[in-house]
Amino acid sequence: MRLTLLLALCLALFPPLRADADFRIATQNLDRLFDDVDDGQREKVVSTQRFRKRVAIAAERIGGRLGLPRILALQEVENHNVLTEIAGAIERYHGVRYRAVLLAGNDISGINLGFLVRDDVEIRHVQQLFAARRLPRDGNPLFSRPPLLLEACADGNCLVLVNLHLRSMRGLADARRRERVLDKRLRQAETLARWIDRFQQDRPDEALMLLGDFNALTPSDDWLDVAGILRGQGDNRDTAARERDLIEPDLVDLTRAIPAERRYSYIFRRQKQQLDYMLVNRAFTGEIGQIAFTRIEYRLSDHAALYVDLRW
């Protein structure tokens, strides 16, 4: 019943897109795309040949199946140079210019969050959220990859996007690590939920979209409903942790409009899983057309891309 009501809500809020719609937003985890430059930070350094090949594949994918989105949120990229190289390859192959947006975070392996933004979109503001926030239990960063906020405007409309790559579920099966992993995942989700609620109170008329790799399952894992917390609809029925409802009004999960058999972005031990999402608030007035996960292109990433077409 809850899913039926949610799909009805999506259709009510977002009627079918007209054929002349042209604003596409997408998100893609690039699976640890490192460059061939040694920055002296003990990061992974790949060969020039491998780097150039992955850049070419990324440009091909962005210009092909992803259809040159106006805004592309990316996870697991090393640095600004990686995004600049991809943008340059896209311009050479497809004649479309992108600007690279990336702020280095806290991940000890050197992966970060970024955006590629087409030059016909105005970038109003870029900001990392909670970059200095620490875990009380050990003083380590709460977010290894701090959420990256982008405020962008185009066609007379503005949108605040928050690119996420949250703590993975790795370690939950290990009794020695479980408590720390669960604590970090819960604190990340609740910190973001409080921020979302405050954003909606302080800026009630501004459109908000959270997108990216949430590292969260729907239905949830056995321990914590991270995606539910961020929607404002945490499900405690089958989870060990008891999450709280911190968001009012709830966000709308656009991926619920994707048919269930195609609603996955990752395959783990032959099981199809959804780890990637797009959530929007009620102030988001875009008309939603096609929304879909692409097939997984393993030459590029172990995640599918997610894209949505919209019109204001």
Walk me through this protein's architecture.
The protein has 312 residues and is an alpha+beta fold. The protein has one domain: Endonuclease/exonuclease/phosphatase (Deoxyribonuclease I, Chain A, 4-Layer Sandwich), CATH 3.60.10.10. The chain contains five helices and 14 strands. The protein has helices at 2-13, 48-63, 80-94, 178-202, 226-231, and strands at residues 23-33, 71-77, 98-103, 112-118, 122-128, 148-154, 157-165, 208-213, 252-253, 266-268, 271-273, 276-280, 287-293, 306-311. The strands form three sheets. It has a six-stranded mixed sheet, with helices on one face. It has a six-stranded mixed sheet with strand order 5-6-7-8-12-9. α2 (48-63) links the parallel β1 and β2 (71-77). α2 packs across α3. It is globular and about 50 Å long.
Here the CATH topology equals Deoxyribonuclease I, Chain A
- The name of the CATH superfamily reads Endonuclease/exonuclease/phosphatase
Spatial order of the strands forming the largest sheet: 3-4-2-1-14-13
CATH architecture: 4-Layer Sandwich
How would the global form be characterised? globular
Q: In terms of structural class, how would the helical and strand content be classed?
A: alpha+beta
Taken together, the total number of domains comes to 1
What is the ordering of alpha helices and beta strands? HEHEHEEEEEHEHEEEEEE
CATH class: Alpha Beta
> What is the tally of helical segments?
5
Strand content: 25-35%
**How much is the average pLDDT?**
92
Largest beta-sheet characterization: 6 strands, mixed
